[in-house]
Write a structure and sequence with these properties.
Layout (H helix, E strand, L loop, with lengths): L2 H5 L1 H13 L8 E7 L5 E7 L9 E2 L4 E2 L28 E5 L2 E8 L5 H13 L5 H6 L3 E3 L4 E4 L11 E4 L8 E6 L5 E5 L11
């Protein structure tokens, strides 16, 4: 990475002017993380720049670049720009409780596929009885509004939809999960599809 160039004021100014006149090419990036402290407090958080360089606004104290999800607004239709309205987007995380106590905290990157992946993880755990690790590692299938994307190893029978089979593990988003086990222990797991890391102290 050309750090000196990226920090050069003239480069930043020219990049900003380019952004104002037209949207930068390239894409943003999404990070999900879950943190549990020894008292049992949970943070299930997601940060996504959305498009390249996000909003171009960086919070000065902590250096967090803000996203530009407001660009999802349109001038008409259900997602029309209006006062006090939030744009439609898929930035979401999950905390599942049982009898008022947390059981799982999970989330994933994966753009517009994120809600589908949350459904897959929860179905794997609740309906199929998979462990949290198995639920995240299991082959995935996703619908991109035109066809199905299926990771190798997912058993498919009688499928009539157009589909493509991709290598397992594929680039279908990177998940992490925290599970609160019955013996009082906590299990943390990071998806094999990315370079995440589960750490404990």
């Amino acid at each position: 990475m050309p750090i000196n160039k990226l920090l050069d004021p003239e480069f930043l100014e020219s990049t900003y002017r380019s952004r104002v006149s037209k949207q930068l090419s390239g894409s943003g990036d999404t990070t999900y993380f879950v943190v549990v402290d020894r008292e049992g407090n949970i943070v299930s958080a997601i940060q996504s720049l959305y498009q390249h360089f996000g909003s171009l606004v960086t919070e000065p104290k902590y250096g967090i670049t803000l996203n530009d999800r407001a660009s999802d607004f349109s001038m008409d239709g259900p997602n029309a720009l209006m006062p006090r309205k939030r744009p439609l987007h898929t930035l979401s995380t999950v905390i599942i409780t049982k009898d008022g106590e947390p059981k799982y905290a999970l989330g994933t990157s994966g753009a517009h596929f994120r809600p589908q992946q949350h459904t897959l993880f929860i179905t794997n755990i609740v309906d199929y009885g998979l462990s949290p690790v198995e639920a995240i590692d299991a082959p995935r299938f996703l619908w991109d509004r035109k066809s199905l994307i299926i990771e190798e190893g997912y058993e498919v029978t009688g499928l009539t939809e157009p589909h493509q089979v991709i290598r397992y593990p594929g680039r279908t988003g990177v998940a992490s999960i925290a599970a609160f086990l019955n013996n009082g222990r906590k299990l943390l797991y990071a998806d094999i599809r990315g370079d995440g890391l589960a750490l404990g102290q």
